[in-house]
Automatic annotation (TrEMBL):
Residues 50-370, 400-710 form the Membrane transport protein MMPL domain. The chain crosses the membrane at residues 12-31, 181-208, 228-247, 268-291, 297-324, 370-389, 533-552, 564-585, 597-616, 637-664, 676-701. PANTHER family: MEMBRANE PROTEIN MJ1562-RELATED (PTHR33406), MEMBRANE PROTEIN YDFJ (PTHR33406:SF13). It comes from the Bacteria. This is RND superfamily putative drug exporter.
Amino acid sequence: MTVRVARWSAEHPWRAIALWVVFVAVCFVGGNAAGMKEATGADQAVGESGRAEAIVTEGNFADPAVENILITSRAGGLDQAAAKRAAADAADRLRQVTGVASVGTPVPSHDGDALLLPITMSGEREDASDRVQPLRDATAEVQAAHPQLRVEEVGGPSINQALDETLGKDFKRAELLSLPVTLAILIVAFGALIAAGVPVLLALSSVAAAMGLSTLASHLVPATDTTASVILLIGMAVGVDYSLFYVRREREERAKGRSGLDAVEIAAETSGHAVVVSGFAVVISMAGLLLANDAVFSSLAVGSILVVAVAVTGSLTVLPALLAKLGRWVDRPRVPLLWRLTAPRTGPGGRPAAPRFWPAVLRPALRAPLATLVVSVGLLLALAAPALGMKLNFPGMEDLPRTTPAMQAYDRLTAAFPSTGTSHQVAVRAPAEQADRVRAALTELAGRAGADPLFAPVEADGPKIEVSADRRVSVLELATPYAGRSDEAARSLDELRDDLLPAALTGIPGVEYAVGGEVAGNQDYARHIEEKLPIVMAFVLALTFAVMVLTFRSVVVALTSIVLNLLSAGAAYGLLVLVFQGTWAEGLLGFTSMGAIVSWLPLFLFVVLFGLSMDYHVFVVSRIREGVRAGMSNRDAVAYGITSSAGVVTSAAIVMVGVFGIFASLSTIDMKQLGVGLAAAILLDATIIRAVVLPSLMTLLGDANWWAPRFLRQKAAAPPADPPAPTPELVGAR
């Protein structure tokens, strides 16, 4: 099928190119016209915290956006009279600002070193950060009028606006850097500008089409904020990989003297087939995320599947058309020094000349396969060992970059008013006639909690209890003075869930309750991931095994591919724990350790790494099988497959490592962990796994590599191209 599609595209290049352009344009324009449906908080809730959110939602509470004017002294104690004058000035100014619904009464801190003026905004809470700038401007005017004090605005909308500006610049920088970095690596890999530009063109067009399709798909599976970033990340990686495999094989065949059409057909039969198999493996891995029953993972799965499917389609259709139309122009214009280093070289009889570097790397695996296998696997297992101590947690406010005035003001706010920091949300549903008993029980609960050092003292105006209009839902906010992921905050949650709340509500008929909030959400989500990870892993492993068996007609090849990819993923997990659960790398990578790995990362990393690693594995093993089918011995076929594919695999890996490394430079801890985990895993996979572990293992197994039950066996087809004779260095290795 791949050959037939490639032949049609090569024979009708302008039609194929035009169809691709129309397809990308329709997807992109259609997606923008349809608009995106975003996942709500209720979609993303899990566990008891999810039940708490559902109860609160049923109460239909007004949930306005709230800002605060924090007044503190720049040095020493706060002058209360000056602070009250500044608060009155701020109240007068803010009442005149469009978007302010009401201004509260100034509240002093317990120690008298701060004064807080609450501001309630009008309009919807979701877009309050887009409307908060006039309030910030008025606050700046108050600050200018009272220079002896520190007057700051802090609240959810202002923090979100500041973070959007900071993180938006981060992502824009990452997106702008990823293109030139990818192009530069490809220029080094090909030594020619057009050859380097073709993979980038396919990747960018695939990303554009997938963005539009994912927008349409969001009406079935709601999207999240990270979907577009993941589409860009995965799309650039697989789009460049697939076209890189294809272009390198087409150039190799032309270097042997084949015509342009023949070279395209052979590339389609070999690299094109490998692209289809590896693309299907990536799709299977990403589909495993759907089993997590989680809105975030479902959104990421849909986006990733779409971009991979589009990239595979492009590599089978428009890529052969471009190569056929360009012909030998694909190697123009040449970069003089790089061209001499990277151009396909031929030896006697038109065979590709033997490489020099990779035979030297392979020599230990071929001469002493058992010792090489034991040492290399031992190193990978040692690197994976720290993963046994992995801790999962969500990043909190304390993990956000403190480079913005809004976050610095937040720290001063929570220090002066602990109840404005981390809090537990107690949601209670009961018959309307029990509303008074519920309020009394919650008031007593707040008093008991306020006397416990794990909770913040109750404010002077009493506990924060809201009751719905129908009196069926009551909500109590209980604050803790500790950071969201601290052990003390976790203990306060356990005490509230296990003891305080059940005891307070005992005896009230028809009562239902749950505890939500930041701490509860973190713990519930980490538990959710721990429960779903084995299910997703089992699904991905089982289907990947089936695909590999059917592709290579070998049970042994399928098993070894699973084991090697598990080694790669395990080493990446261990490296993440070493880097991010400790503090030694904080200065090197510019982060503050949270003592844990971001909750969603292990599951997402597993499926992404398993899928992307299959790209290299399928490509390398396909070249080894070519050698076996051409009559080579197993050892010579392993040498041929590794040496003939090492250059393109290395180039593809460097592209991925470069793009993922850019994400490791972002400000947020979750993006840093994602970038480091992906970059490290791909680097390990393309070097130690494919150049050391794989050849030593396949050399040891010999002809057993290709064992399969009788019903799976089929007559081996003739190889599409004669592999070169084994190099003298590798012959000597025997």
